[in-house]
Each structure stands twice: as C-alpha cells, then as structure tokens.
Amino acid sequence: MFGLARELALANVLGAGMVMDAFVMAFTFPGMLRRFVADEGLTGALVPAIARAEAEEGEEQAKALAGRVLTALIVGGIVLSVAGMVMAPWLVDWVADGFSGEKYTLTVGLTRVLFPFVAFVSLVSWAEGLLNHKNHFFVPKLAPGLVSASMVLTVLLWQDSSPIDIIWAVCWAVLIGGAAHLIICLPPLYKRWGVIRPRLDAWGDSRFRRVLGEMGKVAVIGIMAQVNTLVLRYLASHLEEGAVTWYWNATRLVDFAQGIIAVGVGSALLPAISEAVAAGDGNRFRDSFSGAARLAGALLIPAAMFIAVFPVPCVAVLYRHGAYSLMDVHQTASALQLLVPFMLALAGIQIIKKPFFALERRGVLIGVGIFGVALTAGLGFVLADQFGVDGLAMALSISTTAQLAAYLFMLRRVVPGGLGMGRLSIDVLRMLVATIPAVAAVWTLMQQGDWAQGPTLHNGLFMALSGLVGGGVYVIAASVLGVTELRQIQARLLKRFRRR
C-alpha cells in the first residue's frame, strides 16, 4: 500500500515525461541489485543454511554463521555502492542509450545518488531471513514501506517546487528511508536472536563458504530475471516520450497486486519447506507447497480477472490526477491489461522458486532464467517495434508464462512422489469459474463511472461498491464450488481479531 501511494504521488506531480523517465531509469540498477543481491540472493541462500546449521549444531552456530554473512554484506554493500557511483555514466549508456542531452545528464546524476540504497536493503534482507526463520514476517515486510512513506512525505513537502527539484529531493528521501527501514528491523531481531556481531573468521567456516557460493548462484538467477527488466527498459527508452513511465506504472500495478499476495506467501513458504527438507519430511514439503499455491491463487485470480476486464477504471481512479493525462491513463491501461498473464505467472514463479532454493537445486533456476532472458529479448525486439509499449507487455507475459511452465515441469521431476498438480489444477479451475459471476455482477456498476474524470467521489464510490459486490459474489461462488482457502483465511482473521 505504501508502494502504491508512492507511485500515485510521483505520478501526480511529475506525470509521464522526461523527469519521471529519468528517475525510473536511475532506479533500475539499485532496484535490480536489491532483488538479486538482497531479496533473492540472500534470503534464498541464508534461510536454508541457517535452518540446517541450527538443526545440526544448535542456535549459537546459526548465530555465528549469521555474523559472518553480516560482515560480507557490509563490505559488499560499500564496494557495490562506490562502484555504482563511479560507473554511473557507463551504466546509463548501457540501459538507456535512447536518452540524450538533459535527460541523460539527469539520469546519471540521480543514479549516483540512489546507488548506496543497495547497502541498506541488503542488510534488511539479512534481517528478514533471520526473522522469517523464527516465524516473524510482519516487521521486515513493513520496513520497505518506510522508504515509500519518506518519498510520499517529500513529494507533499516539495510539491510546489519544479519537477527537477522534486526528483532530487525524492532521491535523497530514498536514502533516508533506507536507513530507517534497517533500523526498524533491529528490535525484533534482537528479541529473537540476541546480539549478532560481525565476525572476521568467515573464511575458516565451511558453512559460510557454502552460503557464499550459493548466494553467487542465486545472484546469477536474479540477474537472469533482472536482465529481462533491463532489455525491456532499453527498448522503452527508444520509444516516444513517456513510454518508460507508462510501462513502469503498469508493471508497478502488477507488482502491487501480486506482491501483497504471492511475495508474502512465498516468504512464509521458504522457512517451512526448508525445515521440511532438513527433517526429510516429504509430505510436509508437498503440503506446504500446494497449500501456498492454492492460497495465492484464491486471492490473486479474482484480482487478475478484475484488472483484465476493467483496466481503464483501475488506472484512472489511481492515476488520473495532477500531471497524469487521460492519454497517459489509456496507454498505461492498455499495457496493464496485457500484463495480466505476467502477473499470474510471476506470482507462480515467486512460489515455485522456493522449493528449488530449499532443495538447493539452483542450477535448474539458472537454466530456466537463461531461457527466459533469450525469449524476452527476442520477443521484445520484435513486438516493441510493432506495438510499442503494448509489445513490451506482450513479450513479458509470454516469456514469463513459458518460464513458469518450465519450472513446473522441472520441479515435478526432482520431487519424489510428485506435487499433487492434478488436484491443484482442479482447484485453480474452480477459482477461475468463480470469477465469472463476480465480473458479471459488477459489469453494470462499472459502466456508471465517468473514468475520464479520475478519482472523483462518484468514481470512488462505484469502484468501492464494485469491489464489495464482486468480492462477495466471488466468495459465495467459490464456496459453492468447494474452494476451502477462503474459509481458512476468514478463520485466521477472526482468530487474530479475537486475540485483540
């Protein structure tokens, strides 16, 4: 939610043009490094290693391993930050050679300011892995919201300034938020682990060397995923002014929808299946995976259907204000609609990668990643030339769906006893069928909105009413069809409210 608020605030004051395009490109490399060094590279290697160390030698050895990894992250974060600041012109040349003049100069300057952000998020992901292992998920998932909140506050304070001044202030706010979102993780970390000090005896520990090697493999996996982003943004930099921003906002809405569901479910899944692997419990492994997939599908499939059928209202009620024009809305909505398959496939990949991490079968992930990069690049060059931003969206959807199919095929081969995909497929089909009456129920309501006017009270009321009616119909239809996950969600929520 904080991330969405950030995007709306930036769209309101900057619209889709030179300054916002420059910021999106400048944040490409810090964002990319965050994902494959911090989010995937660290947690994907650290959580299974911590689980194994604790199971075999006790918590003190697990803490020692965590301290050695902490030292490596501090050193690596400093080196990466300095290197990125020095190499900013060459990096921008590589990813956005369609930029020139003032736009190019601004992008280079913003890149230099933003690069140290990766040092903060690497440490936050280290803390997240340790807290997830102790079954604590809330604070490390809340922490990135502080970065977005600092950006929103900066936009509010600087909204009467020029676009150039606003974006410089926002970049400094990113670094301030980066420090804040690390600090907030320290109290729960201390409560569950005590003091974890950096250690200088890393190379003498075979477990640390193994974690470092696994992090390298996972970093390669992350690079494969992020090269897709680089290729498509490179192509977008050669399209018309504002294309980078349209594509960015469409993908951000997709990230919002699948991120609050699939990323959270995947984060909870990794510790559970890592412990199952360490204990050799195949049934628990299988049940954890299929349960996570059904839970994510029960929530994400109706959201995907709503976006696919009503893309313009979804974008207009969020972005049609300030400097964001009606033309920008339609361009973003068109790309968003074509990104729906990407959203569902990416959510599936977020979940299916976790078993490969737990099983330490990262070679499969590297192979599929290389296949995905080649497919995305080939489709992107062909389709962007014919369809512009829509072509980029189509390329990403096709390639990501193909990658999910490859992951499923390979996972079935490496898990003894299979994954129970037959039952899971039937459950997913039930969820899809349940969305049909839900969409039909809100069709007339959505026609009553004047979406060209953006987030008016009238439009907001009809959007909210449509969500309530559609959600209610979906829950009823899904329950009739035997989708049990919704009742489980309801039971969990009631249990938490009763505790309070």
Quick structural gist:
By secondary structure, this protein is mainly α. Helix content is 85%, strand content 0%.
- Tell me the Rg in angstroms: 22 Å
Q: Report low-confidence residues grouped into runs of 5 or more.
A: none
Structural class: mainly alpha
What's the helical proportion of residues? over 70%
The rough form would be described as globular
Largest sheet: none
Q: What do these coordinates show?
A:
By secondary structure, this protein is mostly helical. The protein has a domain at 1-216. It has helices at residues 2-14, 18-26, 28-57, 59-86, 88-95, 101-114, 117-133, 138-158, 163-183, 186-193, 206-236, 243-279, 282-309, 311-319, 326-338, 340-359, 362-387, 389-414, 421-446, 457-480, 485-499.
Element layout with pairings:
Layout: H1 2-14, H2 18-26, H3 28-57, H4 59-86, H5 88-95, H6 101-114, H7 117-133, H8 138-158, H9 163-183, H10 186-193, H11 206-236, H12 243-279, H13 282-309, H14 311-319, H15 326-338, H16 340-359, H17 362-387, H18 389-414, H19 421-446, H20 457-480, H21 485-499
Keywords:
21 helices; mainly alpha; 500 residues; globular
